[in-house]
Write a structure and sequence with these properties.
This protein is α+β, with helices and mostly antiparallel strands and 178 residues long. The protein has three helices and ten strands. The strands form two sheets. A five-stranded mixed beta sheet has the order 8-1-2-10-9. A five-stranded mixed beta sheet has the order 3-6-7-5-4. β9 (147-153) and β10 (156-161) form a beta hairpin.
Length: 178
């Protein structure tokens, strides 16, 4: 019986690793040229959150009212065995809603830190150039206080919501302790 020994071509392996690293660096450099966010609307207001902030989108479930809840907290919903608070941004910021009800629930965060936002449209991925940035001082909407940035696309200015700052303000706690 002839025994064969498998040899690894170290030079070929190094070349493959170098090629993989070079490709990954190019992809990361291309992504760094752009700002990518998840977009949605509340009462027609264009809003954004980071792609890593939102964890789920669902049709609006039945919301259980929560007496004595902070302004803008619609109530509670059960998502996968966890009870999460649901925010009504249109009510909180006195935005005129164009529809009679929000059709979607955007869950931000995971586990104990999850908070739901009532939204009017399914979220979409938006890509902005850094040149699309707008000075927040030019935005008069009260929700701009809770934005970490704004980007113009066409005639619309999209506010990039700082969810940690916003949830801490509403609930008087950090998002991790909600």
């Amino acid at each position: 019986m002839v025994q064969t020994t498998n040899f690894i071509d170290i030079d070929a392996l190094k070349a493959q690793v170098d090629a993989d690293l070079a490709e990954r660096i190019l992809v990361e450099a291309e992504e760094a040229k752009h700002v990518q966010r998840r977009s949605f609307r509340v009462a027609g207001l264009p809003l954004l959150v980071g792609l890593d902030v939102s964890s789920e989108v669902a049709e609006m479930p039945e919301v259980c009212r929560l007496p004595g809840a902070p302004e803008g907290v619609k109530g509670l919903v059960n998502r996968h065995g966890r009870v999460i608070p649901v925010m009504d941004l249109a009510r909180l910021f006195n935005l005129r809603s164009t529809s009679t009800s929000s059709n979607w629930l955007l869950v931000c965060g995971r586990g104990e830190a999850a908070v739901g936002l009532m939204i009017d449209s399914l979220p979409e991925r938006k890509v902005f150039d850094h040149d699309d940035a707008v000075d927040l001082a030019q935005i008069t909407n009260p929700i701009a206080f809770y934005a970490k940035g704004a980007y113009q696309q066409g005639k619309e200015v999209w506010l990039d919501l700082d969810t940690d700052k916003f949830f801490a303000s509403v609930f008087g706690a950090t998002a991790a302790s909600i």
